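Let us work through a complete example step by step.
Step 1: write down the sequence.
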Amino acid sequence: MKIAVSADGPDLESEVGQRFGTSKYFIIFDKETLAFESIPNPGASSDSGSGVQAIILVVGKKVDTVLTGYCSPTAMGHLTKNGIKIVTGVDGNVYDAVKRYKESELKHIKETDHKSDSWTSENNRAAIAGAFKSSARQFVNILPTLAGVVLLIGLFNALMSKELLSLVFSGNAFFDTLWGACFGSIFAGNPVNSYVIGGELLKYGISLFAVTAVIVAWVTVGLVQMPAEISALGRKFAVVRNVVSFFMSIAVAGATVLVFNSIRW
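Step 2: predict the structure and record it as tokens.
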């Protein structure tokens, strides 16, 4: 069994280093023979990463136990994962610390299994709490959209009837697409609402050409919002963009339905 002691110097009379990562030396003992070697800590003079270098050194030497004054939770987690026991709160010189440990006069403040289980449990609890908080925030954010969808379905069913819609949408692919683009250009709201309207239109037997045109125009054309667009971007740009988007919505709707039908059949 090997014991690594963090130390301020290279000999047995040196004081035990009070910080695992930044101690100047590690004195590694064979517990049975008390033969030892002193190894300078490569991270002792580093501004950052000292703990990592100390962990690599100790693990590489196949140490079973570490005696030190203080070990950070992060370093302790890595050491315990590698099967290394950590005893903290150690003081005095290196020789006396090892002797007391060998005679079982030191108490293990942090044991491998206990720390590993506790460390994992704490991280699991934090992860679960974070997941619940994230889910709650997302649910709160989509509540307005869900409320709008429910209200929109109710209004649509109350105001629209199959007879009324049949007067507008006759079943002619060209005119249904044209009327669908017109209605989509007038309506305003969250794009998600266009899917709701589209689904309700399909239930009433309206052609896929018209429904697709409604959805595309809803997203790309905005006659209701045109005054704000003119104010921000100029009249010419707003008019040209909306006209082009209107005709493109008809073309896109037609092409989309044709491609869909060809794939389906």
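Step 3: interpret the result. Residues 108-116 have pLDDT under 50 and may be disordered.
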